């Protein structure tokens, strides 16, 4: 997609474009100062700590007229893909630009903002066609999210946007929307008790695994994942492949997520091993279907060495960013060196598509049947899409859940003997459940498992330092343990 630059300082963009579906940059220069202030406050903003130096418009679509053509009380709706540039001026006046992330924004525009939408406000542009109107995050406005569902009900093209649905999908109209109020990497809207729509916030050109994998699992008949009902994307252009923007899937209203369930069990000092074992089985079922549905590969010496090398590189990058990690670097590197050693000894490992960011919060347990469903197949949002779509050893997902049991135990009471035993029992039950389905216990691949657990703990250190500094001691205590473990 071609891009146009937006200055950070507001300029008068001249007359408003005719109301229509596909807008150019006319509405946008005056939005840039509002975005520069609002974006860094969003949890899903990836450029924390790096000042925004400007924006580039990737695509802009009026889903409802926003400019002078929009009428008084009726809201306008603007869909934007904007790239946020980060840069600074060096001491000799030279400009340095850093990697720029692209974000999906759905902005409402109103003359008068109802009080209940005030928390969603970005403010009023000082100039341009939207002057004196209030611009706000449209996901909090049921009128506008209702319109989005209508678009998903009728597949087809709207300017650069393409809406599609699964064969036979029959989405009822008029479902009551509400924005999900959760700490998320993206943003979601729930419709009635039937559907949940996830809008990806930081987007990369290409097919998002959170659409690709659930579609493949649905086709393969795996019931452990809610099947996508409808989705929308930025249509491909000669410069860029289609870019997944949002996925609608059945909402599982009577379910609890594994993280909350585990904390609840811990609080009552209850056994959780039956649930952990069932989750191990669910993970294995998902892996088995993915291995059948999508390409797999054999990691030979060079690939295994690269895997270990990438882990070591991530450790170095994390240690640069988080000084508390530095004393453990040598011990942690041993875990990766052990995988490189396997490679040199001629070992190979199978790799396939996996979840990529599996933790207890990504598993929903039905209150009636006790069956687990896995959600959020996006992978680690901070990694490039190409990397997230690469086949990987299944122990990567296993390691994610094992780390999660450790997180839950640490959250309940750091260092207490019984919480450590609780975590160990559930880690064992989860692996046993995995082996029930596949016949092979992930613990038998101890070196690879330790490397992936270490890699995940390093990722978590970085994640917590950036997003929840008060939680940093949890992965750091795992890092201490993993660094001290023998070969
Ligand atoms: N199909 C679903 N049914 C019920 N709740 C869901 C469903 N999908 C997601 N959720 C809820 O929404 C939250 C955020 O979804 P998730 O896919 O993890 O988004 P993100 O990528 O933004 O973290 C989940 O933690 C879960 O509570
Ligand atoms: O759910 P997301 O895809 O946004 O995943 C990110 O956030 C998670 C926290 O919400 C984070 O998970 C870490 O904290 C969990 C407890 O809140 C714990 O169960 C996980 O084991 C731990 O990794 C995840 O790493 C991050 O990618």
Give your account of this protein's structure.
By secondary structure, the protein is of the alpha+beta class. Among the domains are: 163-250, Phosphorylase Kinase, domain 1 (2-Layer Sandwich); 255-484, Aminoglycoside 3'-phosphotransferase, Chain: A, domain 2 (Alpha-Beta Complex). It contains twelve helices and 19 strands. It has helices spanning 32-38, 142-153, 209-219, 258-267, 273-293, 301-321, 329-344, 385-388, 395-412, 417-438, 446-467, 473-484; strands at residues 4-6, 52-64, 76-89, 95-110, 121-123, 134-137, 156-158, 161-165, 177-179, 187-191, 195-199, 202-203, 230-234, 243-250, 255-257, 297-299, 349-351, 363-366, 372-374. A hairpin with a 5-residue loop joins strand 3 and strand 4 (95-110). Helix 3 (209-219) packs across helix 5 and helix 9 packs antiparallel against helix 10. Mean pLDDT is 90; it is low at 6-22. Bound molecules: adenosine-5'-diphosphate and ligand LMANGFYV. The site of adenosine-5'-diphosphate has 20 residues, from strand 11 and strand 15. GO terms for molecular function: ATP binding; kinase activity.
Short description:
It is an enzyme of class 2 (transferase). By secondary structure, the protein is of the alpha+beta class. Helix content is 36%, strand content 22%.
């Amino acid at each position: 997609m071609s891009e146009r630059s937006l200055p950070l300082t507001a300029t008068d963009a001249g007359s408003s474009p005719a109301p229509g579906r596909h807008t150019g940059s006319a509405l946008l220069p005056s939005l840039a100062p509002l975005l520069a202030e609002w974006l860094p406050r969003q949890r899903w903003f990836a450029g924390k700590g790096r000042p925004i130096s400007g924006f580039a418009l990737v695509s802009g679509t009026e889903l409802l007229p926003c400019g002078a053509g929009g009428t008084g009380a009726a809201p306008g709706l603007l869909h934007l893909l904007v790239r946020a540039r980060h840069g600074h001026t060096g001491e000799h006046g030279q400009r340095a630009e850093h990697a720029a992330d692209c974000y999906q924004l759905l902005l409402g525009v109103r003359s008068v903002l109802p009080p209940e939408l005030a928390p969603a406000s970005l403010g009023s542009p000082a100039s341009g066609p939207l002057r004196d109107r209030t611009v706000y995050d449209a996901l909090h406005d049921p009128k506008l999210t209702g319109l989005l569902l209508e678009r998903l009900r009728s597949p087809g093209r709207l300017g650069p946007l393409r809406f599609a649905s699964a064969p036979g999908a029959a989405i009822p109209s008029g479902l009551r929307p509400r924005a999900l109020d959760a700490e998320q990497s993206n943003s979601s809207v729930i419709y009635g008790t039937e559907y949940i729509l996830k809008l990806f916030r930081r987007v990369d050109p290409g097919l998002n695994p959170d659409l690709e994998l659930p579609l493949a699992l649905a086709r393969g008949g795996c019931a452990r994942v809610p099947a996508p009902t409808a989705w929308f994307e930025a249509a491909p252009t000669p410069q860029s492949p289609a870019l997944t923007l949002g996925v609608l899937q059945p909402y599982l209203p009577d379910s609890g997520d594994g993280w909350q369930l585990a904390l609840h069990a811990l609080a009552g000092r209850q056994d959780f091993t039956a649930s952990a074992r069932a989750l191990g089985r669910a993970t294995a079922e998902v892996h088995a279907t993915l291995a059948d549905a999508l390409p797999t590969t054999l990691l030979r010496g060079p690939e295994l060495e690269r895997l270990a090398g990438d882990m070591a590189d991530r450790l170095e990058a994390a240690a640069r960013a988080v000084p508390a990690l530095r004393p453990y670097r040598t011990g942690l590197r041993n875990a990766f060196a052990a995988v490189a050693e396997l490679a040199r000894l001629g070992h190979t490992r199978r790799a396939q598509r996996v979840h990529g960011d599996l933790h207890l919060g990504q598993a929903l347990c039905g209150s009636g049947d006790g069956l687990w469903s896995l959600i959020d197949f996006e992978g680690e949002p901070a990694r490039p899409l190409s990397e997230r779509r690469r086949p990987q050893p299944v122990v990567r997902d296993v390691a994610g859940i094992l780390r999660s049991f450790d997180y839950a135990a640490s959250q309940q009471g750091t260092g207490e003997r019984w919480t450590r035993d609780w975590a160990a029992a559930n880690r064992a039950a989860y692996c046993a459940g995995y082996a029930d389905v596949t016949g092979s216990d992930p613990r038998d691949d101890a070196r690879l498992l330790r490397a992936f657990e270490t890699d995940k703990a390093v990722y978590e250190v970085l994640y917590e330092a950036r997003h929840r500094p008060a939680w940093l001691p949890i992965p750091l205590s795992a890092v201490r343990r993993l660094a001290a473990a023998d070969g």
